[in-house]
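Feature request disguised as a bug report, sorry. It would help if multi-protein outputs had a clear separator. Right now it looks like this:
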Amino acid sequence: MTLTVLVVDDDPVMRTILRAMLTASGHAVEVAADGAEGLARLVHETTGAALPDVVIVDSRMPGIDGLEVVRRLRAHPGTRDLALVVMSAADTDADVAVGLEAGADRFLFKPVTPGRLVTVVQEAWAARTAGG
């Protein structure tokens, strides 16, 4: 199954890596360079264009961080049902809990392997489309 994934990360190298991994797995990938751009694209897209199936956000970005992006997407009527994945280099239980409490469906640790990335994206999408 081909999914459309929006990657929101301030690191251009990470955006390139994630795009390559997801594209190699047959998914369509769009990117945003920070939280503000990601939110603008998603809120704008709710006015007519198709939303992505899954959004991956880096938890730590300057300006609007990934956790705030997730909170705002969950609060917006047009995006509250999106499958959301928070990604972070932090790998403590507390970091995972904060991401999930913000509204993420899944949490992804860096460094990311292609297999784990694809699995988490598919799990987040499946959980959201199955109603939880």
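(second protein starts here, but nothing in the output says so)
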Amino acid sequence: MPAKAPPNQFDVLRAMEEWVEKGNAPSQIVATRMVDGKPERTGPLCPYPKVAVYTGVGSTNDAANFHRSAPK
């Protein structure tokens, strides 16, 4: 079975507007993979050099089940 495509859509402009205009720095930005207009999977975007690491609990299609970590 082929691997699922990674999340590839995210709204960084909205996060920047919130930060600049309201002082609300983003705690995270989540990318989404849309299929037929519905979200198929989500994943956190991490500032370099950190990477998203699966917690081992829950679906790997849900950004909530990942944490940011330094690469090993």
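Even a blank line would do. Unrelated, but nice: The chain has one domain: 12-69.
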